[in-house]
Amino acid sequence: MAKIHRKYKYLGQNWPGSETILELVKRACGLFIWIHTVYLFLKQRDAGARLKTVLSLQTFENAESELDKLYTKALLDHPDISDSVFYDRFQQIVGGMVVLFDPLSSASLDSLLHLSFHSDDIVLSLQSFLHNTDGDIVRFIHPSFPEFLSDKARCQNDRLRIDRNFQHGALAKACLAKMHETLQKNICDLDSSKLHSDIGDLEEQIVRNISEELQYACQYWAHHLSSMSELDADVLELVKRFFNDNLLHGLEILNLLQKMTLTLLSLDLVLAKLENQLIFVVVHIYDSALPFAPKNTPLYKTYLSKWENHIKVLSSTLLQWSALITVCEGHSGSVYYVAFSPDGSKFVSGSGDTTLCLWEAKSGAAIGKPMKGHSDVIYCVAFSPDGSKIVSGSSDNTCSEGPMQCMAVRFLFFFLT
User: Fold this and answer.
1) Chain segment 94-110, per-residue pLDDT in tens
2) Where are the membrane-spanning stretches (predicted)?
């Protein structure tokens, strides 16, 4: 309050008074974010009148209800609240932010959403709820605000409430459109004869040639797509166009960003088949990897005719993909037991080399280093029901249990009789 008092000196020396401060503390119900939101609300303009507005709000014993009432009043006090344009822009900017999987800068958000105005106009007018961090990244001050906006029971203003399903659809379309207009072969113009490790300024080239919004689009378009309750004709057409024109371009971006194992729901099969060929030299996606794809696959038939300077394969008997998705290598002895995690995202293997290895199910990539603890062959392994721990049994007459997340070497030993 002292900072506000210094800004608005006309309020009087004793403003707001000890009784008012005690009343505000009582209304906060122990929520620091309530006090912080009031502070930002008063600081923005007309602190005296706004404080009276806050104190006039109906009181609740429930902390969440107090916060909801404050959020609603602060939003309805916006100077442009009677302007329909404000609601449209609020839905585009704030609605988009609610469902983003990674926060973006205001400039990248403008570009991704193809806005005809600057998002800063909205961000600056909503400083009670939003703020710009280093690098101009726009974030919510507290996660309770987007939770409030997207909950029909809490946010009862239809024009301010955020429909997550609609916003995911809007972001999916925006990402697909951004990729279509921006993606191209060898986007960083890299020398095809060099490995990534031989390109000294690779990071600088990525920053220079692949915008923040394009990086976001390539990583998260499928996440937004999978969050939609139904896929409309427009988004289906955009997806079809992506697979026909830009599938390999998108994989090139993910490879440059070292995100090839990122879960892109509609690309799981392609990632599993091509990952080993795409890791080291990006432009060889087109020149080397594609010609060796099985001839009867849609990938080969769709793309090979579009690239002229590719390797000519004179003889190949591979017509379809093998049923074998990947080979996981990490043990030095025979593998005696494999178990999947409850959610199917990981599996653990026990070996005659006395170690356990944890793997990503989709990519086959090893997670951490082999776990040691036994002195003899491991014959059985299992996950706990919640997937948080792994237990193993060995011919060294012990069972070992350890936390799955940290891959710790700390085990609890229980002797078998």
Assistant:
1) 999 999 999 999 999 99
2) none
